[in-house]
Predict the structure.
Amino acid sequence: MKIIILAGGAGKRLWPISRTKNPKQLQPFFAEKTLLRTTVSRMLKGFKKEDIYISTGRVSQALIKKDLGKILPNNHYFIEPLKRDTAGAIGLAAYLIAKENPDAIIATVNSDHYIKNIPEYLRVMKVAEKAVAKHPDHLLLVGIKPTYPETGYGYIKLNRVLEKQGRDEIFSVSAFKEKPDLKTAQKYLKSKSYLWNPAFFVFKASTMIKLFEKHLPHEHKILSSIQKDPKKLNALFPELAKISIDYGIIEKAEKMLCLPAKFDWADVSHFRTVKEIFSFSEKENLVRGNYLTLDGTGNLIYGPKDKLITTIGVNNTIVVDTGDVILVCDLSRTQDVKKLVEEIEKRRLEKFL
């Protein structure tokens, strides 16, 4: 199976640590390795380096190669001339891999995901590969049981069990639901029929191309031209529409499977997730840098070593100091950091992005 690691995201909800030219996947946050390098190391425990590829944009290309060094072959990078969302990224990888082997099975994983039980995760990926090999005309989604009513994730509605592989059950999919409101997410949580969609897609390369031809014909035409002549990438890729694989393909696909999984997973998409992953408890202050507090708990503090950050009576708050920017945010509103970044963009304060 070919592993495509998607590493082209902007990470706006993790600004100002995540920046345009140095995005979140290239940040270690409170760990030793960057999110990207952690993901590559994880995949190398179950797959050969010859089967692992990186999908990213031109802006991050140099920093990504510097971060990974010689871990992966130099020709295992799919470089997008500019951002065209996940349909463009996954489509480009699928078409170029299909040029060499249309029967190749591909799995997409994100560079900013946290996985706790790595052996179980890799086992699930192998089961997914076998399921797609048996049902080559289907897309397979790996689903995670919700632990709280998250409104920032997509959801998979299970239908019926199609088959069993050992202790694993493979379901048909009744529906694919994109990010719900809180009331709907609470309903999904109570039901046993809904799973989080962590965007682990497994599919046969030629099957994905057929779906592009049916549901995104304009993109299919462009990607087919690039497939025939990769030198046309820079000229043709900008003509792709900005659309996610979820909206463009997944929600429209008629033949989908779901493999429920039980490994601990989190999308490192905002500071609340970072706090939950790296803290031992809710009340612990998670600190990188120098921090002194009087009566402060549950804070995330991120600053330079040569600067002292102090608080008095401040709880459940994010304080990030990157030298040129200071962010102070209530822990419950970390999703709104993206709105703040969008406001900065409107005011054309590019130097802070």
Remarks:
- The longest strand covers residues 154-165.
- The longest helix spans residues 118-134.
